[in-house]
Write a structure and sequence with these properties.
alpha+beta, Aminopeptidase, five-stranded mixed β-sheet
């Protein structure tokens, strides 16, 4: 566990290049997990617009992890309202953790754990008590992490490409 991890909140629009670079690395990782993942250059502009809008309009939070002043990872999430399609008992806003990535050179040092905990605490202080996240079925490391943090699988997404 690295004890020199500093968590810094940032605005995506003001740190566009840094967040876009982290998103590229995250996307490259997604491509390794699934050949159905679009190429980052094809979706970069629209996806970056999306996360900027979610930060501005949906109480979004982007956190950067730094070690000795060097950015080594990020996490992004935003508040979502329950819609009428949900059948769960929970009512109110929930935190949707949209994206996160840690530079491969800094993994297994507690960086993502620190990012995730800081994000959760931010929204817990706002009264949000439910967090949802997606991860790829083949992302075994993230699945182990999430299960170790108390997350449980509640739904399975099946898809068929026609």
């Amino acid at each position: 566990m690295n004890t020199n991890i500093e968590i810094v909140p940032v605005l995506i629009a003001q740190n566009y290049d840094l967040i876009a670079q982290f998103m590229l690395e995250l996307h490259n990782n997604e491509n390794e997990l699934s050949d159905k993942t679009a190429q980052w250059q094809d979706i970069k502009e629209s996806y970056m617009k999306h996360v900027i809008a979610m930060q501005q309009e949906n109480d979004g939070t982007c956190l950067i992890a730094q070690i000795n002043g060097m950015p080594v990872g990020f996490i992004f999430g935003y508040a979502e309202e329950q819609d009428d399609s949900r059948i769960d008992k929970y009512e109110g806003q929930e935190l949707y953790v949209s994206d996160g990535y840690v530079d491969k050179r800094f993994r297994r040092q507690g960086v993502y754990h620190a990012l995730s905990n800081a994000l959760e605490q931010t929204y817990l202080q706002k009264g949000i008590k439910r967090i949802t996240r997606f991860t790829h079925v083949n992302n075994h490391n993230m699945r182990r992490f999430l299960e170790g943090e108390g997350y449980v699988i509640t739904r399975l997404l099946y898809e068929k490409w026609l």
